């Protein structure tokens, strides 16, 4: 819950007492409701600077506040010098009206205005179907992008196609072997090659016009044609899978095209000019230890070939040259150790340390009946993302991937995912929204016609006041989730609001006087404003997660 007028008034009071002109005031929600609605530690922060006792200073700060004008019911000094505030009913009611008027813009911020952010995620090798680990990265990356857009940033969603490595040669060899097997020839999948039915499907499809190129004695030109077509088909399948998860990209960038451009050479030249490349044992090294890496890194091997690190540096350098202020990468757990060296490389190029960020997404374990599900018939070696989305749907898949912090390992319980009860968190949140829509239908109410300016004084029950406080906390949660790159803050908030809303609703089943409908007109109108505000926040929160807000369930 935010109260910018109170923050400004505290800052003025602090300056009157001798604080610096740029004094910063932060209000926070106390962990215990008994301690009030908002708390400030300003007196303790200023006490040492001003040579004052914190509790005395806190009292003087409060004395300089016009509590009534600020819609503050009470201000108490607690502990070593905290100031605990309780907001008035008028503050809550005005806030509730603001939520309803703002509608789909409620929670939107502008602190990111003018900032261009590149969010790169998934970036899977074009060698086969996406697995569930890619899916978690997709949900996290897309939701971070949504949060950043909602807070004013100019965001580009980007997929880096790793189409230049030896894994592509193995893909071509695997398709060729499957084609020859289908033709009755003896052919083995190469070591480290790809298995699963999708390779057979690719072999059949490509053989329609590339049969000669799939032969064992195919020319380099023929293999190159197979390579291009195979990459195109795999990427197209990956895109369709991601679209089924409601994930779309603004840019697909190719490693092959990067290598064919001058980007790598330009990056090496710039690092050389900065005196950060040296030769040792015939190889060229980057002084990443100058920028807090644990050791220097090889960029060019003694045979003249590039390490995998150099094209990655050039690719991220290209993001800066395209005008992005921040580059956020969503990486799997196996890339954790890669973060310091990439951060060092960006600093070596003269970029700020804050330019590059990596969000590490931990592993996913799929379970059914308490047992791990390991294999997919189509992929041969892992559970595919498409299998998962087809089985439980995009809403459940996204929500489960987002419910925990990215750096926490997770178990995806298929049985729970299919359960239509409040044990299933996404069902609970969506059902709370659907229940609100059912209230409108039962009361023959046009939600657009609800009078937000109605007298809200009939809202006397404590449960309604507490729910309003939760509703008014949404913008703060959105900003915190965007700044920390932690979408699970939104899921936790929505589950809490759904719990409060369901408790409020169920109270009416036990006591008819607490129902929304069937009351005196003034009472029903006031409660409908709470319902409308709750619906607004549930819908906006679900949209940030890329999840539907259903009319009925």
Automatic annotation (TrEMBL):
E.C. number(s) listed in UniProt: 6.1.1.19
Annotated ranges, domain DALR anticodon binding: 429-553
Protein name listed in UniProt: Arginine--tRNA ligase
One GO location term (cellular component): cytoplasm
Main location: cytoplasm
Organism phylogeny: Bacteria, Pseudomonadati, Gemmatimonadota, Gemmatimonadia, Candidatus Palauibacterales
Gene3D superfamilies for the chain: Arginyl tRNA synthetase N-terminal domain, HUPs, Isoleucyl-tRNA Synthetase, Domain 1
Keywords (A to Z) from UniProt: Aminoacyl-tRNA synthetase, ATP-binding, Coiled coil, Cytoplasm, Ligase, Nucleotide-binding, Protein biosynthesis
Stretches of the chain forming a coiled coil according to its record: 228-255
Subcellular location: Cytoplasm
